[in-house]
Predict the structure.
Amino acid sequence: MEGPSHANQDASNIAGNVSVDYQLTKDGRYLVRVYQTNQYEADFEGQVIETGMSFILSFDYNELKELFSTRKEAKEIRKKNKATTKQDEEQKRLQQQQQSSQQQLP
């Protein structure tokens, strides 16, 4: 055998790789991620621990052009999509009520 054996380098590491996300807003658009990764680097012959924090922006879109629209246009699109979703939910609820009332008739 030549060279050192590094098969069990992570044996003393209890936590391992950790990542925690925290929502800054209720809608989940802004997040903060705190992380720590442990890796064995053969080049350095040692353990490298990376610790950091990141700020994440999350956007929902249906079409690519929505990413490049102005804030006002994006707000109008979201409002329209929300209204459409509410209408769909209302129609489903009415259909379920009709089905349940038809099932209750003898």
